Each structure stands twice: as C-alpha cells, then as structure tokens.
Automatic annotation (TrEMBL):
It comes from the Bacteria. Residues 252-382 form the GGDEF domain. This is diguanylate cyclase. CDD domains: GGDEF. It is an enzyme of class 2 (transferase). It catalyses: 2 GTP = 3',3'-c-di-GMP + 2 diphosphate. It comes from Amphritea pacifica. Keywords: Membrane, Transmembrane, Transmembrane helix.
Amino acid sequence: MKYLTAMYISLSESLGIYTPDQLYELFTNKQHSMPISRHRATIMQSRVFFFCAIFAVLVPTWSLIDLLFLPGKLWGELLLIRILSGAAFILLAWQARKEASLLRARLLLAGMLSVTPLFYLVSDHWLQAYELSDTEQVVAELYALLPFVMVAGLTLFPLTLRELLAYAAPMLIVVVIAVIPQAKNDIPQAVSTIWLFTLILGVAMFASLNQLRYMLSQVNRASYDVLTGLLTRRAGIEMLDLQYRLTTMSESNLSILYLDLDHFKTVNDVYGHDAGDVVLKTAAQQLCATVRKGDSVIRWGGEEFIVILPTATPDEANDVITRLMKAGLGTRPDGTPVTASIGVAEVQADTTKDWKAMIELADHRMYTAKTGGRARSMGINDTQLLWPECSNAEAIQNPEEVLPATS
C-alpha cells in the first residue's frame, strides 16, 4: 500500500497535480474554461492537419515499395485501399483547416485514427491469403506496425484521460483481433504484441496528460488576472469575438457593461497600492457574485471592467446593473462605498457592426456617465440609473428610474 501511495505521489508531482480539481481537469474537460477548450481545439486540429497531410502523401507512395517486393495481384489490391486511404486523409486535412471547435477536433482525430486501423485490418486479411517468401513476409510485417504508430501519435495531442482511452480502445481491439492465435505456438507472440501495445499506450497516456497539464497551466496563467481572478483583456477579447459571432448567427441579443471605478486613483495616492488592490479584488468578487451564471467578467485594464451579458436585452442589462448597485462593490479604506460609472451597449438596439464598435460605444457612454457626475450608468436612449448613494439632487430627468437609497 505504501508503495502504491508513493507511486501515486510521484506520478502526481510529475504531472503537476496538487489538488483534486487539477486531477479532475485531466480526467475530463467538464471544468475546462472556454479559452482552454478553444486553445486545445486549435492545437488538435492543426496537428490533425499535419498528420493527415503527411499520410495523404506517404500512404499511396508506399505502394512503390509494395510493387518491388510483393506479388503483382496483391500489389493491385493494396494499391486500391491505399488510394482510398489517401483520399480520406486529404478530406480530413481539408476539414481540419476550418474554424477550430472542440467537437470538430474530436471528430477529425477520431476519423484520422480510424482510417489506419481499418486499412490494417483489410490489408492483413489480404496478406494472409498469400504464401509469401521471406523477403515478402518482412515487408508484410511492416503493416502490423500501423496501430502502434497511431497510438504513439497520441502523444502529440493534449487529451483528457477519458478522450485518450476512447481513442485507444478501438485500436487495442483491432490489435487483439489481428493477433488472435490460430495455434498454441502463436500464443507467446500474441501476448507479447498486446503487451507492447499496452506499454506504448501507457507512455502515450503519460505524455498526452503531461502536455494537457502544461497547456492548462499556461492558458490559465494567460487567461486569468492574477490579482482579481477575472478574465484578462486578451482572453476577454476572444470571448467577446466568440459571443458576437454567435449572436450574429442567431440574431439574438447581446449586452455589455463597461465599468470604471470612481475616484480609484485617490485610493492609491492616499492609502497606497495595497489598499487599492483590496478594493479591486472586492469589486471583482462583487461583480462575479451579482452577474448571471452564463455572464463573463473581464478586467479590461486598471480599474476598468467589462461584463458580457449573452442574450440580455437592454432591460435585462439594466436589471443586472440594478442588482449590482444594490449589492455594491465594497467599501473604500475610509468606509465610503465604492461606486462605478457604467456604460451599456446592446448589439440589436445599437446596430453595431462588430464587438469593437460595441466596446467603443459602451466606453463613450461610460465617459458620459463619469462627466455627468459619476456613480451612475448610461444606457441606450440616454437611459440612466443612479447608485443608491447618489443624492436625488443629482437625479436624471426620469426620476422613476433612480434606485431608492438603502437604509
């Protein structure tokens, strides 16, 4: 038991696993963030394209070697399936050049991994039908290496454990079927072949999981702000671009909030940057606790934040702002409440051409709110909402839209 525990600890440390959540991330992709999934899909599709492009050339070209060493009739049969396999690889390579998505990447990898085992099964059936000389038998034995080559290729893909086992299981079945002993003397060779395949699979599993763990750590580091834990500007841009394209295709709503904390510079100047960091962290926590489950919060820069509200109409965006103003963004070191100037933009109501135009419009409205007295939001058609702490004397023209002050 101690040996197994020590082996588990050693394996975990080699993979950089220190928490149950990190272990779960290697087992399945259910907890992977969207930036991680998109990055993984891009890597998988690019490598599928690379492999398929090479195989599309090498598989038919190998027929020249078959022509030199194998019987003419057998060569013709193998040439046919080589051409079909090459065509399949060309089709997969073409599909791999399309926009990356995790579903497409998985299907393309499954297609690539299925072509070679099928080719191996058909070719092995034909090879068994011929009496081959020693030289011909050596060439024929090379076909048996195809499943091993494919399972070794899994080392280049950042796969979860569930994905890797799902891809490897059919290839293992193919190998078992191909080496089923016909006589008692064939049993040792069959066992050694299956053992070799399992050994290579174990190495591929370790390499693939190690690659995935490294990618998770790097993407998380680049995607999440160290101080607040929110999406970074770089990761937020990817999210904005994706959400805008999805909204355009479905002709649905999409709102964004552009927030700038009021008088934040004075906190740093008077109380120091450590106090400013506390204000930023508290404001970020409040934002995450207030927005809807499917919304995304981005630290856009300094004391500026952007909230992405998929499917949210202007009224629903105002509802989020209302909850945020009532919940608050924390307090400053002097005990006064933290407020923000907020600009709102919505894709349908504002008829923006792209997400950049939405950001510019929300930024402009945020600046209008700031110059209009701060502690308020500026939305579509100059709709404003005041922070509860804002006095009624600063109220906007539509007083019914002003939030009541909290006790």
